[in-house]
Structure prediction request, 565 residues.
Amino acid sequence: MEIIRLENIWKSFGKIHALEGVNFSLKKNEIVGLLGDNGAGKSTLVKIISGVFPHDKGNFYLNGEKIEKFSPKLARQNRIETVHQDRSLAENQAIWRNFFMGRHKTNFLGFIDKKFEKKETLKILQKNLGLKGVGITPDSPVSSLSGGERQGLSIGRAMYFDSEVIILDEPTTALAQNESQKVISFIKEIKNQGKSCILITHNLRHVFEVADRFVIVSRGKTDTIINKADTDLDNLTKILIDHAGI
Amino acid sequence: MNFILKYRHQLIITSILILLLCLFMFLSPRTFLSSGIYSAYMSTIPFTAVLALGLTLVIVCGEMDLSFPAVMAASGFVFSIVFIETGSVFLSVAAAVFTGGLCGALNAFLIVKIGVPSIIATIGTQFFIRGLTVLLAQGLAKSLIGIRDTFGYQILSGRIADFIPMQFVWLVILTIVFLLILNSHVLGDRIRFTGDNANAARIMGISVNRTKTFVFIIMGVCSGFSGVLVCSEMANWWPTQGEGFMLIVFASVFIGGTSVFGGKGTIYGTFIGSIIISMIEAGLVSAGAQGLWTRFVYGIVIITAVSFYAKTSDKKIGQ
Ligand SMILES: Nc1ncnc2c1ncn2[C@@H]1O[C@H](COP(=O)(O)OP(=O)(O)O)[C@@H](O)[C@H]1O
Ligand SMILES: [Mg+2]
Prediction:
């Protein structure tokens, strides 16, 4: 069953044509690797799926239903969770606030259940970032975290909220080897739980390890789609180099 | 240790207040060891403090408002004419606060819908609102002398036990409400994220535009209420009302520890900051210094406070 389907999607920013007739689909329990050069349009594509940008033209179906109006909130309500390339964290705010940003647990008056949120954040910090007694608490501002830790926080945030589709836009850039490995195990876990994932990365070894299908984005188009069964790492590398060479 | 680190801004500002108080007690014990001066303080502090509370939210939201002195005057004017026409303080307060909210909505419209940067939009509305008010009032003051005989006056400006002015009670209530909003309510959370990183806030599903609109309306309502408090206490409205408040209110917010870059602010700091700023003038005069000293001492206090904050910012101490 297809969860997401994009047909002939166009998107421009002023004079820049970021997407020029993209087709894309994601099935249930499938992991798709989205590959391509910088500036090819990968992030724009996932931002349309996560409700950040509206598309200019084309059809966007979610679970078979055509989407007319979409927003980050609606994407979440449809259990699409995204870790954006820019991480989407607010530097000066406490880690726990960032963790629950835009979806706090509140009482009927709108007051935040801080105790609960801090407790949950602490759990995730210890589990995901392995932060134990280094002076970082849920109350510390995000600015006190390293780049890798911020990434861990964003991914932990996406993992925490039970979702059907998880989109990871370059999740392992700037991560140390063992931290990257954690992300890879997390993606395998997504697969085991019967959920779906879109993974954008420049690390072909990583994506080859976990993805079922590869979609190559090139200058706003997606003309090359390869099943894992039909290729190997060398072949995939070669195809990508060829694309970049055009 | 953690407590000290976490509340360092609050501790700094509280220390400055205590230091100043000790200084004034030392310089003019007769004034500062008697209760009269404190009652006087409590009657005037709320005028600027109520504005400063609203402005704190605006600045945490990453915006600016320069129109509040004019909004105060406009709301005070509406308060006066409704009172003169109907004699009902309750109705007058409602009309004034509504006027303030309306002015805030006008600011929000220009900023959110038209896309004018807030500092520029509110320079425009400040002239527009003040100008319109002066025109409607034909430049004349309004006497509200009859207000002192009403029950409404007792609620707005009466004295508890002949000592605590009611406006100070209102200020304390508002301070607590704003404290809860900014620290524990989802609205405050949206304000923080909008001011800190509007783009991330939007991507994470926060309605940045609605948050900004809310903040400007709240600022308008605060300005309206402050206008009401001034009119009621003075039993008078005049066309230049609020004109001297602009810099004093900004100073109160910034010596309180709120960051001009948005995303960070403290309501407690603003509350204490307002007290400090109001205290200096009267303190100096009764300490025997001439009024000439006021600005100079303001300058010293503001520079000291903001330098402390810069030195103890999160990045500097690695927190
Ligand atoms: N918000 C934006 N405003 C203007 N141009 C943008 C914006 N986002 C992306 N672009 C442009 O769209 C093109 C595709 O960008 P992007 O989707 O980020 O590529 P990728 O993620 O594949 O590196 C680039 O030319 C980029 O400069
Ligand atoms: Mg990208």
The longest strand of chain A covers residues 2-13. Chain A touches chain B at residues 50, 52, 71-73, 76, 84, 86-93, 97, 101-104, 106, 109-112, 114, 139-141, 143-144 (CB under 8 Å). The helical segments of chain A are 42-49, 72-77, 95-99, 114-129, 147-160, 177-192, 204-210, 233-245.
